[in-house]
Amino acid sequence: MSQQLGGQPIIIINQGTKRSRGEEAQHSNIMAAKAIAGAVRTTLGPRGMDKMLVGSTGDIVITNDGATILSEISVKHPGGKMMVEVAMTQDDQVGDGTTTAVVIAGSLMEQAEKLLEMGIHPTVISEGYRKGMEKALEIADTLSFKVDPKDRKTLIRIADTAITGKSVESAKEKLDGIIVDAVMAITEKTDGKYTADEDDVLIKKQKGKSIDDSELVRGIILDKKRVSEGMPKKVTGAKIALIAMPLEITKTQVKAKIKITTADQVSAFSQQEQDSLKKLADSVIASGANVLLCQKGIADPVQFFLAKHGVFAIEDVPEKDLKYAARALHANIVNKPEDLTAKDLGHAESVEEDNNIDITRISGCKNPKTVSILLRGTSDYLLDELERAVVDGTRVVMDAIEDGTYVVGGGAVEVELLMKIRNYAETVGGRIQMAIEGYATAFEIIPRTLAENSGYSPIDKLVALKNAHAKGQKTAGLNVFTGEVIDMLKEGVFEPLRSKRQSIQSASETAIMLIRIDDMMITQSPSAGEMPDM
Fold first, then answer.
1. Exposed / middle / buried, residue 6 (Cβ in 10 Å: 0-12, 13-18, 19+)
2. Is 190 noted as a catalytic residue in this protein?
3. Portion of the chain with pLDDT greater than 90, in percent
4. Which of 65-79, 83-97, 227-241, 367-381 has the highest mean pLDDT?
5. How does pLDDT run across 221-273, given as a tens digit for each residue?
6. CATH of residue 310
7. Which is nearest to 40 in space by CA: 78, 88, 76?
8. What's the pLDDT score for residue 526?
9. Out of 63, 68, 89, 99, which one is annotated catalytic?
10. Number of separate domains in the chain
11. Residue 526 located in a structural domain
12. Residue 471: which of 406, 409, 416, 526 has the closest Cα?
């Protein structure tokens, strides 16, 4: 960009800056948003398809998780990056519903394109969208149902909805129970409010056997084995010591030389070292511990003395796992063995080394603050997708417990929003009314996509859904397996209200920001080529 002054050009913006203004900038952002939404749209719903993503290093990811897909693909367009951010925000805040949020955002931009072609100003569209969002959130709250944090049956249905449609859904009945039991075990009530921390559910993966062999351990699972074959493979009535420092002779912090002139001095030096190591083992034994988890190494002589007294010991336990163990066992992590007392020990029903895989189970903890889920599968790709499904399931169950609310799925909420927001638009009037109507129409994309991905006519199913809702059937949704419009409340297709609210809010606010952009300036080096695209 340059201006003329007295015949001399004045350079305002660096050479190489690409600029697009007005309709060009708006069209560019709309196309980017629609392209991102289109990339994940076919994965929506229980009958959605999967994507295979191959990275530059040859790593393969097979998934239908919207956030995972968008995090793996390379998006250059700034408007496209904002759409990716919608999925990331949804994933961070809720853990599920990422595809829904992105698809709605893309539909909002498509409706904005039609409104712009009609000559409606972007500020009017953004104002209408903001009013529509406020109304949508208000309506969503009225469509929610209460759930008791101890209502295992309803929580299982919420987990089931999150897992249905993923490639691992064949084992969803077992996974549902594992997920709900894990979350209920770590849920705490403080000042009348329930909270659940996702970091308190430790997920471990082991290749081999089938998905059905996955299990919940009310304690922790360590990817470690005992340090000595002379130690017992299983300890019942475990009293567990957690030590952060190494059980070995450490080097001094200063340089020093010891001059030894006789064989007796060598023998005495060796004996003193042996006594020091025995003292370390004796400190552990004296505390009453029969299991030891050490964050650092354990010297061979210490291993010998511990094994002699029947102590099960594991060395080089990661700090993260040691902290998990402390919460699960209600134990204290001590720095030095000599500081260890009986009060610092944790308790578990059993500590057992697995015969087939390199893990140790610490199970039967009383009121554990952390639990572990061991996932089994025949391939790394399957295990990765299984982990994503379990993470999604645990997050939505936590959301439902913390908020105490859920809504039905199957496109029921979106159809209700579509119809009620249109009715609301009629009370507003003016050009903003058209923007609000466009906002309402954007929600058609969810039932349409569910029908398309299931092989049904989107027009026929949308008409049937609207007809049911017009008759007051607020929970009527599309059964994607039969094509019938049924009561989703009776069918048990549930999802957290938080997921629905977040998808509406993230999609709407992103669309509002993109609509208001009428000038894009992208600074590039002279060799960078054209304006970034997807």
1. exposed
2. no
3. 38
4. 227-241
5. 888 899 988 899 999 999 999 999 888 866 555 565 666 666 655 565 565 66
6. 3.50.7.10
7. 88
8. 47
9. 99
10. 2
11. no
12. 416
What six digits make up the tokens of 202?
Answer: 């430790």
460 is catalytic: no
List the one residue out of 382, 312, 317 whose CA is nearest residue 348.
Answer: 312
Tell me the DSSP string of 34-101. HHHHHHHHTT-STTPPPEEEE-TT--EEEE--HHHHHHHS---SHHHHHHHHHHHHHHHHTSS-HHHH
pLDDT at position 3, please?
A: 52
Q: What is the 3-state secondary structure (H, E, C) of 181-201?
A: HHHHHHCEEECCEEECCHHHE
Q: Clarify whether residues 358 and 434 are in a common domain.
A: no
Q: Is the pLDDT of residue 14 over 70?
A: no
Q: Are 142 and 41 part of one and the same domain?
A: yes
Could you list the residue range(s) of the whole structural domain that residue 347 is in? 220-252+262-367
Say if 528 falls within a structural domain: no
Residues 421 and 474 in one domain: yes
Query: Is 392 marked active-site?
Result: yes
Catalytic residue, chosen from 63, 68, 89, 98, is: 98
| Residue 261 host element (H or E) | none
Q: What is the pTM (predicted TM-score) of this model?
A: 0.80
CA pair distance 443, 149, nearest whole angstrom = 30
| Chain position carrying tokens 């000559």 | 119
Same-domain pairing of 351 and 442: no
**The two three-digit tokens of residue 283, written as one number:** 């400190």
441 carries an active-site annotation? no
Report yes or no: 137 and 501 within 8 Å, Cβ to Cβ: yes
| Length of the chain (residues) | 534
Q: What pLDDT is attached to residue 512?
A: 92
Task: DSSP letter for 250, please.
Answer: P
The two structure tokens encoding residue 483: 């094509």
Task: Report the half-sphere exposure of 505 (CA within 13 A, side-chain side).
Answer: 15
Residue 159 maps to a domain: no
Query: Which position among 164, 392, 394, 449 bears the catalytic label?
Result: 392
Q: List, for residues 488-519, the tens digit of each pLDDT value.
A: 999 999 999 999 999 999 999 999 998 888 76
Q: What is the pLDDT of residues 402-440, one digit of tens each?
A: 999 999 999 999 999 999 999 999 898 888 999 999 999
Residues 345 and 411 in one domain: no
Picking from 312, 288, 295, 310, the residue whose alpha carbon sits closest to that of residue 247 is 295
In this structure, the answer to whether residues 240 and 356 fall within a common structural domain is yes
